[in-house]
Amino acid sequence: MQGDNEVLIYRDPTRRLPETDPFDRQITIGLGCFLEQMVLAAGAAGHAVDLVLYPDGPDGAVARAGFAVGGTADPLSAHMLDRRSCKEPFGEKPLRPVDANELELFADIYTDDRMVDALKSLTWKAWETEAMTPRTMRESVDLMRFGKAEINATPDGIDLGGPFLESLMLAGVLSREGQADPESAGFQQGVALYREMLSATPAYAALVSTANHRTDQIDAGRRWVRLNLKCTALGLALHPVSQCLQEFPEMRPHHRRAHDLLAAPGQTVQMLGRLGYGPRTPRSPRWPLETKLLNA
Fold first, then answer.
1. How far apart are CA 57 and CA 174, in angstroms?
2. Comparing C-alpha atoms, which of 57, 91, 143 is closest to residue 279?
3. Which residues contact 71 (CB under 8 A, 6 or more apart)?
4. Distance (Å, whole) CA 43 – CA 52
5. Going by C-beta distance under 8 Å and a sequence separation of 6 or more, which residues neighbour residue 268?
6. What is the pLDDT of residues 158-214, one digit of tens each?
7. Residue 65, φ and ψ in degrees, nearest 5
8. Which end of the chain is less crowded, N or C, counting CB atoms within 10 A of the terminal residue's CB?
9. pLDDT tens-digit profile of 206-238?
10. Distance from first CA to last CA of the chain, Å, rounded?
C-alpha cells in the first residue's frame, strides 16, 4: 500500500509454476483475474480505480491502482460472491442458443457437436500428458491440499475436500504419495473421475488474443473473470481446462492442435474452458487480504 488511496500489485515469485507455466503466461492471466475482480469490487463500493499496468516497466510492479470516490457498480459485480470454477460433470442439457449468443460478447463459444467432440479429445489428451509427465505431475501434487485441515491452513492450490474425498483419505485410497504414483489405486481413481468430468461437457469457451504480450495476458484474465461472472448470471457453470495451452515440451502437439482449432495464424489462445449446466459447488477458500498487504 502507498498512502491511503493507492496500491502497487506485485507478482509473488514464490508462486511460479516453472514446469507447467515456464514463461509465466498463466500466472499473469491469474493476476489479470485479480485486477478485474478488484476493479469490480471497488466500483460496487462506490470507488473509481485508475489502473496503470507495469508502471515501472516489465520487471517492476504489475499494476498501480489509485482509488477515488465516485465509482459505479458494474452489473456483473452482483455475482462475485457466487462465481465458481465448477470441477464436476455437467448435465447433458445443451447450451441454450440465447445464452450462447449472450456469451459471444465475452468469448468464442463452441456448441457444434464435431467441435465439442474434438475439444473433449484434446482436453483429455492434454490432461493425460500433464499427469503422466513426472515433473509436471509432481508440481501439481505439491499444490494439492488434502482434507479440511490442510485446506484451511493453506487456502490456495488444488483443494481436495468434501465428504467423498475425505472418506477416500480415511480409507487410505487417496494420499499425496498415491497421487504421485500412476500405478496406485488412488491415482487411477482420480484419472477415471477426471475423464468422466471432461467427457460430460456440452460446450466450450475460448479466449484468443491477437498478440501475446504481458498486457494481452492481463487482458485475458480480466476477460475471463467477466465471462465467469456472466455465466454465473445465466445459471451456467464454467471450468478452465487449459492444460493444452501449457508450454512445456511434451505438451507441444496439443498446444499446436488447440491453436489449429481455435485461433487464426499469429493469434494466441489464452484460455479454454468447459461450459454447461453444473451443480452448485462450495466457495473456494482464500487467504485473508491482510496476509497479502505490505505498507510502503
1. 45
2. 91
3. 42, 43, 45, 46, 47, 48, 49
4. 17
5. 208, 209, 210, 211, 212, 216, 259
6. 887 777 778 878 888 788 888 888 989 888 988 998 999 999 999 999 999 999 999
7. -120, 120
8. C
9. 999 999 999 999 999 999 999 999 999 999 999
10. 6
List Cβ neighbours of 27 (8 Å cut-off, separation of 6 or more). Answer: 11, 15, 16, 17, 21
Instruction: For 237-273, write each residue's pLDDT tens digit.
Output: 999 999 999 999 999 999 999 999 999 999 999 999 9
* Lateral strand order in the sheet of 108-110: 108-110, 203-209, 268-276, 237-240
Tell me the average pLDDT across 267-289. Answer: 90
Distance in angstroms (rounded) separating the CA atoms of residues 187 and 178 = 6
- How does strand 268-276 pair with strand 158-160? unpaired
Q: Which residue carries 500412476 as its cell?
A: 182
Helices and strands in the chain: count of H runs, count of E runs: 10, 9
* CB burial of residue 273 (10 Å; 0-12, 13-18, 19+): buried
Distance CA 226, CA 234 (A): 12
Bridge partners, residue 269, by sequence = 208
| HSE (side-chain half, CA atoms, 13 Å) at 133 | 18
pLDDT in tens, 38-91: 999 999 999 999 999 999 998 899 999 999 999 999 999 999 999 988 888 999
Q: What 3-state class would DSSP assign to 285? A: coil
Beta bridge partners of 204: 110, 274
DSSP type of residue 61: -
The answer to whether the pTM exceeds 0.90 is: yes
